[in-house]
Request: fold
Amino acid sequence: MLTLNTKIERLSSVGPALKKTLNKLGIFYILDLFYHLPFRYIDFSQKIPIGETEVGQLVTLEGQIIDIKARRSFRSRLAFTEATLEDSSGEIRLMWFNQPYIAKQLTEGSRIIVAGKVEFYRQNQLTNPYFEILSDDAVASGKILPVYPLTSGITNLRLAKLIKIAWEGTEKKFTEFLSKEVLSKFKLLPIEKAITTLHFPENTQAINSARFRVAIDDVLPQQLAAQIKQKQLENSSSPKIATDIEYVKKQLSLLPFDLTNSQKRATWDILQDLETGKPMNRLLEGDVGSGKTIVAILASLMTAKSNYQTVVLAPTEILAQQHYESFRKFAKDHDSEIGLLTKSFSTIEGEQVSKAKFLTQVANNKIKILIGTHAVLSGSVELGDLGLIIIDEQHRFGVGQRAFLSKAHQQDLVPHFLSMSATPIPRTLALSLFGSLKISQLKSMPKNRLPITTKLCSESERKIAYQKISSEITAGRQVFIITPKVEESESETKSVKAEFDRLKKLFPNFRIGLIYGGLKSAEKEQVMNDFAAHKFDILVATTVIEIGIDIPNATVILIEGAENFGLAQLHQLRGRVGRGEHPSYCYLFTTNDNHTESERLKVFEKISDGFILAEHDLEQRGYGDLFGENQSGFNFKFPKFITLEALKTANQIAGEILSNDENLANHQHLKSLSTSYLETLHIE
Reply:
């Protein structure tokens, strides 16, 4: 018999080629195969006539292909397949993007069953729908068919059969880590029943209950860690950093602008936290350009006045440099007390000094505000009296912080923590996710921020957008061009390189740079430094430039394949421009003009408030984008299953477990999983 720890190649039907394909999906053991869960389902018993479809419906249709053709768009060379499906009541268009093989699988006359969401682009249409040829057993049975995440080299039907073979041949499947009392109290399915249901569903109601249980298991370790961390903080002491009102007024008078009401409130809340002698644990959440940095500067200056140090951590060297320049600009009378430490720089008062001299200044508490990257976390950095740690986009840190903190907790005082995030999260969700974490939100924008003009463009308007790019560059400005988001990393590399080559021909007189996920970290850093130094006029990029890059001279961002991005991600991309004194522009192009009718993109075109857009994103796309690894750093396995109700339930279960087993001695599996969250600097 098989076990959960049996390697996938032990299955009789898995040869070397299929093993390699499964490995690409993250499947190495039988356990991985069982946890490769469907992302949607098709209920073949719920078919409707094509003539009865309505826009917005999720439908299952049966009919005959009467026309099909595969093409590539002239501009981007993206492949798409267009077909017409007909039954006795009418016809509907089917569109598949980046799947040219479909035109080989289907021919005119093929009878298929197809499932997807009805959209309207001049006529009713299903975009990238799932389909099965009608002769397949799965269709004929009229059952609910699971649809799995796939890669090239395996079909949905083959994967489903493989899971069935493994399931029937595995002796003991899952160990239940929640007590019978907890399962009963919170009306949860046992985990084995939940996984069984997701692979072999009997009805749609059962699927929802099973997803809920899997979501609970996914978020429970994070909720346990949050509560453990909070208890640790409640029992700890931190430096008492007194608020000097006159000093605050003086610093505010030196600023060339007035704080917004949101900035004033956030600053005051933080200063009050610093006074208590208990560890501050606060998230400063602000939209792109809302002015989080000045709030961090004021908190750092007050900490320095009490003779404690502040460490400001940034995820990249260029962001650390930008923070350093901002601190020097708005805290000129403290220039000698501000230092920058990265892999490349050790800087005081704008001058490069030896690393040995720099580290001595830090250890002697002469550097009161230390700004840097992961270099600050190295063993060679001996801090003086650390009072405050500020983390910008904290989820991009992970390794080494615990050792850093244990070294920093001198005299049994825990530093205060402030995390800054530019990803707006609705407050009710943030409170459920982060427990008792305190949250400050900057919702009002500084008066000097110019609005960004956003335009959803049809292909016929491309010439106008390119003319704007040319005129802006001629005026000395810079431009971002974002390539379409695609599934495979190899395809992404090809896509961005093809666009780079095309634009070099289109704009032969402009300097064009290229950055994408496949580059090494040092190479990405160099490209961004060169763009910041205006060595390029245009930067062709994937979404690696999404977070935090501050190029005030960039005034245009053109986003290709905009329909593939969530609103939150589009908003982050748009925030790369509009940071200087000149008007800025965001142009959205889609892979097909039909997508210009997209309600979601029209919302983005009209709304600039990131918090409002975040609410729209949650309504339309659920929590998956928010909790995906690239966005949040939570590393949840099934982010699309997570709901607000699941978070609240997991929080209650965590509290119940800890009330009876404070050290998780009887929950070793949960203890090991929650430990990874406790290793981070700031639990959120």
Residues 397-403 have pLDDT under 50 and may be disordered. The two ends are 42 Å apart (CA to CA). The chain is about 40% helix and 20% strand. The domain at 42-147 is CATH 2.40.50.140 (OB fold (Dihydrolipoamide Acetyltransferase, E2P)).
